Amino acid sequence: MDAQMPGVFYRRPSPESDPYIEPGTVVRSGQTIGLIEVMKTFNEIKADRECRVSKILLDDGDEVDIGQTMFEVDDV
Fold this sequence. Notes:
Elements: E1 7-10, E2 26-27, E3 32-38, E4 41-46, E5 51-56, E6 63-64, E7 71-74
């Protein structure tokens, strides 16, 4: 899944929280799987289809560009 906007990526809603997903998680369409912060506004990243997340390519605080791949996924 690719980024739809540039910003800073986060795997969790707050530093004390568990990540939204881990590798191996099966997600449903529309499920929140991360956040991108743009100008102090947090935008939820939603799964665009049901799939299994095989790899998360970014860590908390990594900068992301439009079109950059954030997750590797497999169809279920």
